[in-house]
Amino acid sequence: MTPGKAFLTSEEIRALSGRSDAWGYWLIAHCWGLIFGAAALFALWPNPLTFILAVLVIGSRQLGLAILMHEAAHNALFRTKRLNEFAGEWLCGRPIIADLPEYRHYHLTHHRYTQTDRDPDLKLSKPFPTTRASLRRKLIRDLTGQTGIKQRAQQIMFAFKMAGEVEGEPSSQDLAQAFSGPVLGRAIVANAVLFALFWAVTGAWWGWLAFWVLPLLTWFQAVLRIRNIAEHGAVEFSDDPLRNTRTTRANWLERLLVAPYWVNYHLEHHLVMHVPAHNLPRLHRLMIDKGHGDRMTVAGNYLDVLRAASSKPAGRSAA
């Protein structure tokens, strides 16, 4: 059963659930436009400030691609399955070394068992709240590339391992990051295209390394962690859909660098997971208008989320 049916009528859900190809094309174009626009800005005015800005913007849009892949996994990015599959795989997933079918399997399991012992994402949320020192160490590992390098190495090792296996599949907790050899090959093809495009945009052979690999290993990892914390970290461990996930209000800077494409409306997404992302603000307002605001877990901003996630007293900190 869709959790939102306990709070919304079928007519209200139907009005919010319509897919739009125009929205899908626009979001894909917007995401890639910002990516190549940020790289082009550095090419036009090369200096440390435009370089750092490009890394931050591109890293946030790599998260944006993951979010749009998530939309496609719910068949909500475009009206047809064919467009969702193509865009979700080749325009969103492959470039960031992710696989749409395996992600969909993993993610729908998360929706079915949210904040229960069978939730494959529980390992991401259950450590919170932690101490400030622990959260700081995690973010430092992200920003210095340690997390990204470790995860990519695990992906590659898993791909070669799976290439020789005939039977069996990874456990649900492996599906978000690990994939098979052929899938890795398609990710290499997508990144070969990106290598050429970044070279053309920046005029430098190292453009792909500086403006794709570096953000993917650093800022993308940090904002991905912040996103995971905001969605289910330090919330109620229960089956109450208004308490076991969180919506976070985001200003324009947070939407640019941390929370693209309405990803901050995560409580609403869990209520009706097939509602397209651009309609989630409308769903949020509808829930407020219907008097559910006091029960909903809503944070004022992402700093508030990080404070809550690092509120454990010092003394017995996690890694």
Q: Please, could you describe this protein's structure?
A:
This protein is about 60% helix and about 0% strand. It is mostly helical and about 325 residues long. It has one domain. The protein has a two-stranded parallel sheet with strand order 1-2. The longest helix is centred in the first third of the chain and has 26 residues, at about 50-75. It starts with 9 loop residues before the first helix and ends in a 10-residue tail after the last helix.
Helix content: 55-70%
Per DSSP E runs of 2 or more residues, the count of β-strands stands at 2
Secondary-structure-based class equals mainly alpha
What does the largest sheet look like?
A: 2 strands, parallel
Low-confidence stretches: 162-178
Radius of gyration: 19 Å
Overall pLDDT metric: 90
Number of helices: 15
Identify the strand order in the major beta sheet: 1-2
The structural domain count equals 1
Question: Helix and strand succession?
Answer: HHHHHHHHHHHEHHHEH
Distance between the termini: 38 Å
Question: Outline, from the CA principal axes?
Answer: globular
Q: What share of residues are in beta strands?
A: under 5%
